[in-house]
Structure formats: structure tokens, C-alpha cells
Amino acid sequence: MTTVEETTITRTTPDNSVEEVCQTWTIWGSSCYLYVNTSAPSWDAAVAQCLTYHNSAHLVFIGSASENDFVKRLVGPGKYPWIGVTEIEGEWVWSTQGIAVDATLTYSNWVSNYNSHADQDCGFLQTNNGKWQSHKCNAEDVFVCELEQ
Ligand SMILES: [Ca+2]
Ligand SMILES: [Ca+2]
């Protein structure tokens, strides 16, 4: 059990409206999404990059099997994008900017051994099977941003 390190996020957010951002992203349900197919150097860096697109954008929060399936298809097979789930003080939560936005994982799709490594506190999606797995937060990875409309 570890506490996620606090990071200072540099805001370079343009003043684009949600509508302007979503025009170039993929709309699904009440959100729009961007798959970033270039690795960020860490989970926190991926959070920060989402914020550069809009100050309400965050790593994707997956709340249902249908949203999980949408994200899987958006990214395509054989990828391991970061999602917005992280372990804070022993609890897995949807989090952005160091704040637990939703402490209840009403839906989850973890592999069975996801919680077996104390130093793996950030979650990613395995797009081959839709399962979530944990990884060291300072690992490079592609990622998916979400912005609620
Ligand atoms: Ca969502
Ligand atoms: Ca852990």
C-alpha cells in the first residue's frame, strides 16, 4: 500500500469549450474520448496531458461493461493504455489531479492478480481481452482521455 506521489501539474490549457474539444474526439454516450497513441512517461504525465486538451479532461473513467467495450474498440487490439484508476491509501479509485473523483468502483474488470504487487498502483486496460491490470505508475504508456459533455 503506497500513497500516490503528488505532482505539480502545469496548466497550459487553452480556452476551448467542451464542444470544440469534442468535435475532434470520439463521442460516446455523454462523453467524448481521445486515444493518445504516443506514450506518456508516467500515469501522472498522462493525466497532465489530458488536462492540456481541456481543464476538465481526465484519464478515462470506465463505469460500465459497455463503456469498457467502447474504449477497447476505440484503442484497438494489442494495446495497454492507462485508464484513470489508481490506488490511493489502499483503495482503488477513479482519480485525477491527485483527487479521488469516484471512490466507488461500481464496475470493474480486473484480472485476478491485479492487487498482488504493492508497487503497482496505476491501472491500464488490456485491449485484447478488456481486462484491467495494475502497473508501476512511472511506466511509459499510451492512454485514453475522457471529457464529459
Ligand atoms: Ca466515463
Ligand atoms: Ca498496489
From TrEMBL:
Pfam families: Lectin_C. Residues 28-146 form the C-type lectin domain. InterPro entries: C-type_lectin-like, C-type_lectin-like/link_sf, C-type_lectin/snaclec_domain, C-type_lectin_CS, CTDL_fold. Keywords: Disulfide bond. This is Lectin BRA-3.
